[in-house]
């Protein structure tokens, strides 16, 4: 607790002191455009949504790392397993909610995993950072625009597209600790009315032992290696002046070794998984008044797990279709209307006596509409509603009310009231740990905040408070999915950024989240307790970067993760033991030298070689490690 406050205070003091320097560049981002907040291009000044944009420059500074690493540095997001062995599964905790409440998009299309144990969110290990152009993170309940899973927020991963000349070759090659190697190679370009991008990535590492070795055990635990391949291909065709069509294909697979659990080694457990995401995006321009969009996608996830006592082969398939349009009714009033269809199927390719099901599916049809009042004397308002028709859980209306007001480009105040509806996943209903009697979840979400630009626009400050209530919340407890009566979460996020001179940038952030669940005890009385497993109440981060010369860039970051609880399942135990995990701090650094068409880079992670902490109880963490390499584009 004290460390958290020290880091936060130091970050604010550093930002304030640097911001008092003489010359500055404007740090205001109100004129920046986003596509995720409203499904069409809109200035941040015209929406009250809480949005973070991780741009191409920041992505390029993370080559050699992963999408999970980048997201873990965003305010209010904790990625469980990010400091563990590279093959360890990554769990998204967004504003205190688990992965099942976060929608992950690729270029605006939801990417789903019907086999997922923690919800429909896609496995982040499938997504190579080398093929990402930028990431937009939309906070708070967004079910009106993005459907049932978007109760905590939305992460839109925007992939690389065609270039501005006929042929552009790009790639990178990286080597690192634990015999790690990653390389990518791609072609992108534009010729006449056709643009294209195709890229391939390969990653391999010996890793470390996934499970930690207890002090009482003398045997050496073996390394659990990991290998991944990724292919991204997109073609854009401007068929007519107004009509554009963009077929796409993304494929990724990985193989990993994994251990038998907390403190339990295994030399035979292995996993093979692959993900196919294919489809087409279309857009028809309605002059300068708006566009009609059509998005269609097919996704398939195959998972094959083999242990000493069991073999599991799951085949998950997802179908997505959406047509929507936005239109400028006047210069201050905009409308958005659409309808989407989703279907999920999960197939057990190896049914047995204990797990005899072979196939289950569910589908939804959801029309939605939103009105946007745009810069009406500084006032902006979004009113939206979605009507979800579920084949098993009936019909449900959800809504969004999002007003904001901008005072002279210096101060923006905003608020949101929204509702959400989420049906149980196929895994929670029908797997060997499933519960076919689960109820659907219903959410109410509230947030409010300010964003302001101080000291002649040298300092950008955003403060947001939120509260989220989920009725009949679903959790996985003691090898079974169950409904709780109510889940209540609340929190505060504070972000400060300063660019006092063109070459120097300082950012400091702090997030607080707390949550409790109410459920009935055997006596029939309600019991309330904290259940934010692996989710700290306090996180804080400081980032400092400096463009030392035209070619040399250096940066460093310190991230603090506060105390939190975990559940430990001892061998042969059918109930969990509550474990309290201590806080920890990680210090990373980065440097690059740019030669124009090529650059060399170096990552140094966990510089203090901190190994005396648990990220996940009973599992190893990476000590000091490095990655270095070269990237090029010509």
From TrEMBL:
Signal peptide: 1-21
Any Pfam family the entry gives: Plug
PROSITE patterns (alphabetical): TONB_DEPENDENT_REC_3
Localization per record: Cell outer membrane
Annotated keywords: Cell outer membrane, Membrane, Receptor, Signal, TonB box, Transmembrane, Transmembrane beta strand, Transport
Domain TonB-dependent receptor-like beta-barrel, chain residue ranges per copy: 184-607
Family designation: Belongs to the TonB-dependent receptor family.
Protein name, per record: TonB-dependent receptor
Species of provenance: Chitinophaga pollutisoli
């Amino acid at each position: 607790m004290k460390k958290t406050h020290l880091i936060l205070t130091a970050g604010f003091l550093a930002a304030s002191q640097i911001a008092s320097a003489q010359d500055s560049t404007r740090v205001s981002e109100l004129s920046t455009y986003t596509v995720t907040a409203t499904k069409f291009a809109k200035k941040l000044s015209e929406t009250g949504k809480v949005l973070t944009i991780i741009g191409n420059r920041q992505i390029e500074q993370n080559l050699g790392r992963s999408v999970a690493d980048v997201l873990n540095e965003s305010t209010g997001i904790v990625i469980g397993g990010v400091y563990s062995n590279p093959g360890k599964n990554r769990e998204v905790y967004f504003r205190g909610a688990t992965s099942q409440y976060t929608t992950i998009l690729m270029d605006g299309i939801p990417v789903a995993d019907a086999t997922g144990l923690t919800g429909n969110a896609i496995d982040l290990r499938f997504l190579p950072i080398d093929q990402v152009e930028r990431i937009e993170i939309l906070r708070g309940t967004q079910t009106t625009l993005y459907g049932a899973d978007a109760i905590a927020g939305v992460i839109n991963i925007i992939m690389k597209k065609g270039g501005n000349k006929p042929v552009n070759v790009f790639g990178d090659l990286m080597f690192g600790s634990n015999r790690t190697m990653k390389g990518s190679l791609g072609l992108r370009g534009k010729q006449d009315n056709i643009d294209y991008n195709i890229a391939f990535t390969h990653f391999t590492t010996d890793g470390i032992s996934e499970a930690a070795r207890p002090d009482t055990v003398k045997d050496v635990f073996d390394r659990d290696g990991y290998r991944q391949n990724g292919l991204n291909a997109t073609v854009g065709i401007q068929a007519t002046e107004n009509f554009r069509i963009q077929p796409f294909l993304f494929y990724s697979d990985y193989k990993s070794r994994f251990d038998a659990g907390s403190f339990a080694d295994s030399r035979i457990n292995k996993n093979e998984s692959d993900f196919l995401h294919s489809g087409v995006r279309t857009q028809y321009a309605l002059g300068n008044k708006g566009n009609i969009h059509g998005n269609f996608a097919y996704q398939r996830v195959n998972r094959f797990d083999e242990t000493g006592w069991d073999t599991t082969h799951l085949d998950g398939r997802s179908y997505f279709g959406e047509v929507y349009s936005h239109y400028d009714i006047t210069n201050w009033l905009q409308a958005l209307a659409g309808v989407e269809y989703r279907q999920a199927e999960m197939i057990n390719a190896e049914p047995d006596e204990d797990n005899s099901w072979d196939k289950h599916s569910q589908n939804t049809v959801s029309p939605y509409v939103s009105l946007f009042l745009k810069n009406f004397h500084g006032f902006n308002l979004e009113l939206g509603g979605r009507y979800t028709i579920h084949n098993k859980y009936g019909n449900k209306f959800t809504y969004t009310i999002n007003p904001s007001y901008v005072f002279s480009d210096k101060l923006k105040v905003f608020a949101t009231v929204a509702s959400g509806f989420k049906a149980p996943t196929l895994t929670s209903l029908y797997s060997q740990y499933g519960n076919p009697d689960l109820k659907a979840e219903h959410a109410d979400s509230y947030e409010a905040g300010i964003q302001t630009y101080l000291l002649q626009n040298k300092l950008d400050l955003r403060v947001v408070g939120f509260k989220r209530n989920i009725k009949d919340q679903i959790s996985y407890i003691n090898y079974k999915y169950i409904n709780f009566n109510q889940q209540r979460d609340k929190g505060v996020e504070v972000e400060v950024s300063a660019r006092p001179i063109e070459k120097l940038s300082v950012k400091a952030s702090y997030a607080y989240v707390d949550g409790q669940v109410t459920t009935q005890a055997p006596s029939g009385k309600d019991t309330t307790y904290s259940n934010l497993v692996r989710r700290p109440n306090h996180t804080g981060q400081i980032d400092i970067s400096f463009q030392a010369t035209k070619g040399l860039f250096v940066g460093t970051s310190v991230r603090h993760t506060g105390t939190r609880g975990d559940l430990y399942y001892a061998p042969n135990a059918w109930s969990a033991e509550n474990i309290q995990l201590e806080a920890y701090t990680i210090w990373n650094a980065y440097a690059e030298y740019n030669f124009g068409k090529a650059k060399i880079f170096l990552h140094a992670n966990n510089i203090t070689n901190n190994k005396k902490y648990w990220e996940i109880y009973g599992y190893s963490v990476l000590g000091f490690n490095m990655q270095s390499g070269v990237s090029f584009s010509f």
